[in-house]
Structures are given as structure tokens and as C-alpha cells.
Design brief:
alpha/beta, D-Maltodextrin-Binding Protein, domain 2
């Protein structure tokens, strides 16, 4: 295969952190730094081609093999339940999933089936099933904190970094669900066809981390 290894990066903070990691390795990321509106960019000295995409699309591109590798949050991997190999925990983009309620509102106990609002129905359903609990899940696209305030839900499952937004809206974390960080994923076919190149890049990343 003649083309460079193609790696999809999640736009925004994970993109910036990955580029900083590549520069630490010694790659020339000038084209990515000065990207303008371009979405496919070369890192010529590393034989890499960077594709900038939204988190969900990173998984789609890697799953379908149009990108060999990707950098995406563990939250997206868990929610989309994709068929990619997860190679590395890159250690940045750290946060957690947590269950939160209105301050002082009991969540556990009683006979009523609880309603939980979330942007991540698969993760939420799986976690509550693991606890042997049946819950009604409402999918929210925007500010999930509104759901308990408007009494649409008894609680929310969402990503929490500092907890400031929760506090400012009168909510509190009552239980952690799982930790989240940026992961490197790879297409299974690319892993077979381009194993030496991919392993070389992974080895450089591991040494730098």
C-alpha cells in the first residue's frame, strides 16, 4: 500500500494533545498546526496523514478502514460499541462518567422505576444492568443537567471533569460510573496489512508517554 498511514483525530482538545505528543516524538506537525480549513493533513517525515473529524466519525472511519488508526475518547468507544482494536491508553483527556441527582434527592430505594437522562444510553443501560437495576432512559442531546431540574428525570449519567456545571445547577455526583481518557484505536485489517508500520508508531508513542 503506497499511501501514508492515515490516522483520524478527534477535533478539539484531543487533536491538540495528540499533535503535542507527535511533536514530542520529533514529528514535524507544521501542516497540522497551520491547517486553516483543511481536514486532511500530512505529517510527511512520519509517513502519516491526519484526518480531523468528530469523535463518532473517528470510529466510523477506522471501522470502515478508510483510516487505519484513530484517537478518540473511551466514552465514544463504549457508547458506539465499535469493532476496532484498542491499542493504547494515551493518558490525556481524563474525566469520568458519573451518576448525578438534584442535591439532597435520594436516587436509590423505593419501588418506582427511576428515570435517567443521558447523552450515552448504551453506557447507562449497561451500567445499570450490571447493578441489576431496571431504569427508564431518556436521551438528551444538549445540556443534560436540565432534566432533573425540570423533573424529567430522577438523575443523569454524564461526563464530569471538574463538577462545576453540576454544582452551579444544584446537582451533585452520587456515584462514579467509570473513568475515561483518550485511546488509540486501529482497524483490524490495517493491523494485519501494515503491522510493522503501526507497531513502530505505537512503540514511539509508548516510549514518549
Amino acid at each position: 500500500m503506497n499511501r501514508p498511514i492515515r490516522i483520524a483525530l478527534t477535533k478539539g482538545r484531543l487533536e491538540k494533545d495528540t499533535v503535542a505528543l507527535f511533536e514530542k516524538i520529533g514529528f514535524d506537525c507544521t501542516a497540522v498546526r497551520e491547517k486553516g480549513r483543511k481536514l486532511i493533513l500530512p505529517i510527511a517525515d512520519a509517513n502519516l496523514e491526519v484526518v480531523l473529524a468528530k469523535a463518532n466519525d473517528v470510529i466510523t472511519y477506522v471501522e470502515h478502514g478508510v483510516c487505519d488508526m484513530g484517537v478518540v475518547g473511551k466514552d465514544t468507544i463504549m457508547e458506539m460499541q465499535g469493532k476496532c482494536f484498542e491499542l493504547l491508553d494515551l493518558g490525556f483527556g481524563r474525566c469520568k462518567f458519573a451518576l448525578a441527582t438534584k442535591k439532597g434527592s435520594p436516587f436509590y430505594g423505593g419501588f418506582k422505576v427511576k428515570t435517567v437522562a443521558t447523552k450515552y444510553p448504551n453506557i447507562t443501560r449497561s451500567w445499570f444492568e450490571g447493578k441489576g437495576m431496571d431504569v427508564d432512559i431518556v436521551k438528551i442531546e444538549g445540556s443534560v443537567e436540565l432534566a432533573p431540574l425540570l423533573e424529567l428525570a430522577d438523575g443523569i449519567v454524564d461526563i464530569v471533569e471538574t463538577g462545576t456545571t453540576l454544582k452551579e445547577n444544584g446537582l451533585e455526583v452520587i456515584e462514579d460510573v467509570c473513568p475515561v481518557s483518550a485511546r488509540m484505536i486501529v482497524n483490524p485489517v490495517s493491523m494485519k496489512l501494515r503491522q510493522a508500520e503501526i507497531e513502530k508508531l505505537v512503540s514511539l508513542i509508548e516510549k514518549t508517554l
